[in-house]
Structure formats: structure tokens, C-alpha cells
Amino acid sequence: MAVHDRVGASSPRHNGPSEGVLTAAGPYALDLSLAGNGPVARVLVDKLADHIPAEVLAKRRAKSKPLVDGFFVWVKGMSQITRPESVLGKALGYAINQERYLRLFLEHGELPMHNNLSELMLRQTVVGRKNWLFARSEGGAHAAATLYTLFGSCYLQGIDPWFYLRDVLDRIQDDPANKLGELTPRNWPATRQGHTG
Questions:
Q1: For the whole model, what pTM was predicted?
Q2: Alpha-carbon span 195 to 197, nearest angstrom
């Protein structure tokens, strides 16, 4: 799972490896560059689901590892001549302190290299938060969170949420409870092909 600890994000508890996020080392340095360059409008999506982790790992070791090694050589060199309390100094300190986690994607082909898509999906809620500032009740807030999660999952799977909901709501009452997992956005495309075929 890709996580970072800027702005209060905390590491989840789970059994798999936890990785740092290379793009999380950037916000401190980006604070310097974004002032003159405007917003960065680029999202790279690493579709690991389409690749065997061993193949991904081999490509990363061949292409990404030399770049990451060079990055950390530069970071460590710059940290010797940069004030630690400066914005750049904080970015360099973050990278040095998180190096072990930032390199995990080079050892585990199943881990994403970054979490840019997750950050983009979260940004949509933050940008529109004044539109839904009041949920009227705790139940309303819970329902909204459930829908945002469901819609986000649909987008991550490349599914139109409206089409998904229309199909699932038509079928959910007829499907047995032990097969509800087949109707999640991740499993729904294969289930739908079996249902219509």
C-alpha cells in the first residue's frame, strides 16, 4: 500500500509491505517550483494489474533503479550544503529519512511506484467540500462516504458508475448473499460477461 506521512497521513496496519511514495518527497520541493509554474497536470498510472509482478520488477530494476540510485546520491550531496530548515532542506531530509520505503517498489513488483491517482481522486472531494459541507446527519455522512468510495472504485477500474449501479441494483436482490463480492467494481466486469453471455 502506498502511503506518505505529509499532512497527517498515517501508515495503515496490514500484513503486506508498506512503501513510501516517491511523489511524496516532492511536495516540499514543489512548493518552490509551483509558485512560478502553476499546477502540475500530469498523472502517471502504473497498471500493474496488466503485468506479471516479476516482469514489472525486472523492468524497474533495469530502468528505474539507476535513476533512483542517482536521485539519492544527489539528495545526500545536496543535503550537505543546504540549510535543514529551508524548504529544500526539508524535502531533502524527507527523502533521506524515507529512503528505505521509497525504494520498496524496486523490490516488490506488485507495489505501485506512486499513488498519484489516489491523490487525484481525494483532491476531487477536497475541492468540492464546500458543496457538501453539511451532511445533515451522521448517517448521511456515512452514505456519502460509501458512495464516494464506490464511485472511486469504479473509476479505478475504468467503469462508468451510472452503468455499474444500474446493473448491480437490478441484480442484487436476485444474487445470493455469498456471491455479493462478485458485484464489487473490481469483479463486476467478469461477472457481467458471465451474466449476459
A1: 0.48
A2: 6
